[in-house]
Specification:
Structural class: mainly alpha
Number of strands: 2
Helix content: 25-40%
Number of domains: 2
Number of helices: 6
Order of helices and strands: HHHHHEEH
Strand content: under 5%
Oligomer: single chain
Strand order of the largest sheet: 1-2
Length: about 160
Amino acid sequence: MRHLELLARLARPDDSKIVLLVLDGVGDLAAAGQERTPLEAARTPHLDQVAARGALGRIAPVATGITPGSGPGHLSLFGYDPLSAEADIGRGILEALGLGLELKAGDVAARGNFATADAAGNLTDRRAGRIPTAECQRVCARLNGALELFHPFDQSHDVVG
């Protein structure tokens, strides 16, 4: 039986509300010198309370052993078939739509992180220390200014911070 056929058979109308808490990216592996994962070592009283009052489970959004990209993975949580062409989107589109940006046919939406590299160009921190919002906005404004040099009349290229 296909994934969506099973979901359709299991779904029941209900007036109650649910919260779907997705701990995307919280998984980790224990390693030499680190016997427990960061989540195992963390104090989690609020998560423990939510877990005690809710229903818990795990899902394989595509199929066991297949790790989907963020777009298909997130859409599958809401019942979309992650193997369909319609669900084959990336994080750039999700981020743009989440910001309320209007996208048209032919537009490209890209998502990236600010990162830190050493003198040799090796990535040392893929999140640049999680820079504060004000600093992110300053860097985005500078990038937008640099982009303006290449496309002075086209405002559709803005970097959103």
